[in-house]
Amino acid sequence: MPMDRTTGELLGAATRHSGSRCLALGLVSVAATGAQLLLPAALGRALDLLLAHSPATRWVLCCAALALLLTLLDACETVLGGTLDARTTAFLRRRLTGHVLAVGPRATARFGAGDLVARIVGSAAQAGTAPGARAALLAALAGPVGAVVALALIDPWLAAVFLTGAPVLALLLRSLARDTSACVADYQRAQGRIAAALTEAVGGARTIRAAGTAARDTKRILRPLPELSRAGRRMWRVQGRAAAQATAVAPLLHLGVVAVAGLLLTRHRLSPGDVLAASRYAVLATGVGVLVGRLSGLVRSRTAAARLGEVLTEPAPPYGDRRLPGDGPGRLELRGVTALRGDRTVLDGVDLVVPGGSTLALVGRSGAGKSLLAALAGRLTDPDAGEVLLDGVPLPALPRTELRAAIAQAFDRPALLGTTIEDTIALGPASPARVREAARTACADDFVRRLPEGYATPCAHAPHSGGEAQRLGLARAFAHGGRLLILDDALSSLDTITERQVTRSVFGRTTTATRLVVAHRAATAARADTVAWLDGGRVRAVGTHEQLWRRAEYRAVFGTGLGTEEEAEAGDRSSARTSARTEAGPGPEARR
């Protein structure tokens, strides 16, 4: 079965990873095949001696020893095969998981989270059997070949009779490999679609329940099930047809060999023991059932490996070896940045400069490209054209470790990774003191200390709302440090008072980092040094919030209607009063 280069390299690496076990399994399998080939000859010799009333104890003991050896070798083959499969599967899962994390969001965008999980879990387990299946297939092939040679040694006519039907068996095996490969590929693709739909539904379980669409979504998830069933039945039909055809051919060949052996016996060219041995060798030579099983297993594993190879063809972003200037202020610059999503141009030739140490708010309607621009600034993805620079160095030219140390990021829905709350905030080499300081800055320290075990509370058991999760994500970004801080709608779930406290830290002078903030609220944009207004994939205007607020189209971004100049001035005065009240704290009524 032909393989593409990526799949071949992957299976080659997996085989080398467990090379000693593959070699041991191959040797054990070949030894077991050798014992099987010796046993008929020993039985035939023992039979001849017994019929001649000669001493046959040595040959009987030899037969018993071969039978015991076959039992031991079979046990060793089972243990080696199981451990080899488990070790190879673990290697493939590590390899694929590392590649998916290195590729980043592009992998999820291309394959979908559910399909990726199905490949990493199911396809990797199936592909992990490839080295063992290959070693077992070689041993399975050695059996029929050795049996034909043994028939030729007994009498050339016996081998000639068997070889008349050998081309038919070869055609059956070739047809089996081709048809099985197509069926298995269809089966695994349908599995991937079901896994992708199920993952999506699990993530939106609350929405499905609130909408009362469980039955409809169940049908949607299981829509590929008939295709999965058809592919599975077709796969079994292919294997059943091949086994039936082989079963029809094999007995004819076996009977032919036995008939010729009997004829030679009547002419005194063979002994009764030779006839017994020839009969046993004919069974081994026609052991197509074993070959069918081994070949089917190898085809399934290589087809699964091809699905893993598809993921590995998605290139991981390259990294360079340049260094950031030691005293760089964190100046961020986008030069002619264009980014596509499918056939749609989301960002088109964006030029933007964020001076070091300043705060820039990204503002625009939904779909304007704010989050994509933030992802480009943090090199979560790369532009299709143009370049992004930090302190004059293109981001792809930086080493991975230096790039990630220089940029801290927080998101609207942070992934709370880690064993405990402290691990979740640190997510790296941050000290406990730095973790707690970051938590206080993000207004997370109070609710963390109220948890049963404080910062040692297991993250999976810690109850946290959307706002609390965002505060933990912000604390993680603050603990990370660096010269560039990117907040992608990371304040959206905070209540007004908490947001006010956090924005004082973000927009104040408590940090020297350059800050890039995706803003959906006018109050957030008003605190930034500068606002970049995105519209239609381009930067429509750059200025302060107060300057841009005079434009009706800008106010419409925040849901404010298109009004007159007097309304705009009134909005400015209202914004100013709001800011003054924010700095002064809550009024008497609020305090009461």
Structure description:
With 592 residues, this protein is of the alpha/beta class. It is built from 25 helices and ten strands. The protein has helices at 5-17, 19-51, 57-103, 105-111, 113-127, 130-154, 156-163, 166-203, 205-211, 214-221, 225-266, 272-285, 288-312, 370-377, 400-406, 421-426, 432-441, 445-449, 466-480, 496-507, 522-527, 545-548, 552-557, 565-584, 588-591; strands at residues 332-341, 344-354, 359-364, 385-390, 393-394, 407-411, 484-488, 514-518, 530-535, 538-543. The strands form two sheets. Strands 6-7-8-3-9-10 form a six-stranded mixed sheet, sandwiched between helices. A hairpin with a 2-residue loop joins β4 (385-390) and β5.
Short description:
The protein has 592 residues and is of the alpha/beta class. It has helices at 5-17, 19-51, 57-103, 105-111, 113-127, 130-154, 156-163, 166-203, 205-211, 214-221, 225-266, 272-285, 288-312, 370-377, 400-406, 421-426, 432-441, 445-449, 466-480, 496-507, 522-527, 545-548, 552-557, 565-584, 588-591, and strands at residues 332-341, 344-354, 359-364, 385-390, 393-394, 407-411, 484-488, 514-518, 530-535, 538-543.
Give the CA-CA distance, first to last residue.
79 Å
β-sheet strand percentage: 5-15%
Mean pLDDT: 83
Global outline: elongated
What's the tally of helices? 25
| Poorly predicted ranges | 562-592
Largest sheet: 6 strands, mixed
Structural class: alpha/beta
The helicity comes to: 55-70%
The total strand number stands at 10
Radius of gyration: 35 Å
Q: Strands across the major sheet, in which order?
A: 6-7-8-3-9-10
